[in-house]
Amino acid sequence: MAIRLTELLQAKNGGNQSEMARAVGVTPQAVQKWMSGVTEPRGANLDAAALFLGVSPSELKFGSDATRRRERDIALIKLEARDQSIFDSARVGEKRQAPRDQPAVHSAVIARDPEDGVPDDVVLVPESRIKFSGGNGHINYELVDEHEPATYRRSWFQKHGINPDRVRRFRVTGDSMEPMLFARDTILVNLDETEVTDGRLYALRYGDQLRVKYLSRRLDGTLVLRSVNPSYRDEEVPAELANEHITVIGRVRDRSGTGGL
Questions:
Q1: pLDDT tens digit string along 48-72?
Q2: In the chain, which residues fall in CATH 2.10.109.10?
């Protein structure tokens, strides 16, 4: 909402927060927090802010389709900048095709002869295939023998406090996360990070499907599933349905693949 408030106020009066504060009946400090995303206007304040800015409360809170696509693009750029170093510094020996309009990047390569064994500072993570039992039951992981395991630096796991024994690699399907993740790319998932932190990327079970989405949770327990591809709308799953049909498998910590080639 902070992006929408900033753009609408800029168009309204050149960004004068004091004028908006007087019109809404709050302090300038409150408006400043709204603009920075620390808090959001609610109830009567949301209605008054929307009236002042010339939009409906729903549009101010959730945005139009065009606005949401623009905000998603901005959020993706910020996430790419924040997570790129994490994703790329983790990999050893596998080149990653960057998303469109970005230069290709790769981490340092370690040459290894299979007959020499695995060095102490290297962790091999094979790809897994995931299978779900009926209902909201057990999740089973089967190793995929036809693909070579990915090679990671042990120091990367230590740096980020991740237990190498509690990670799995899965292959992505579909196009809802393009241009960040393409079909056939692989993701590294930390099974120990299942508590939802707003704006983080997670692998989850939805019914009998493995899905990868940015997650956030509202105060009423509604789980919001967000894609990167603007062709896909956000999915809002009420708390009761989310508890019944969705299981967070873990947080996505790395990605690799051919980038849609």
A1: 888 888 888 777 877 665 555 555 5
A2: 82-256
CA distance 141 to 59: 43
Give the strand pairing for 128-132 and 167-171: unpaired
Query: What is the CATH code for 82-256?
Result: 2.10.109.10
H-state helical runs in 170-256:
239-245
Residue extent(s) of CATH 1.10.260.40 domains in the chain: 2-63
What is the pLDDT of the chain when averaged over all its residues? Answer: 78
* pTM across the whole model: 0.56
Under a CB-based contact definition with an 8 Å cutoff, are residues 185 and 236 in contact? no
Please compute Rg for the chain using Cα positions.
22
Only one residue has tokens 């620390």, namely: 38
- Supply φ then ψ for residue 147, to 5 degrees: -120, 145
2-63: CATH class: mainly alpha
The continuous run of DSSP H or E covering 17 comes out as: helix 17-24
Contacting residues for 162 by C-beta, under 8 A, at least 6 apart: 190, 192, 253
Q: What is the pLDDT of residue 240?
A: 94
Residue that the structure tokens 């709050």 belong to? 26
Cβ contact 216:198 at 8 Å: yes
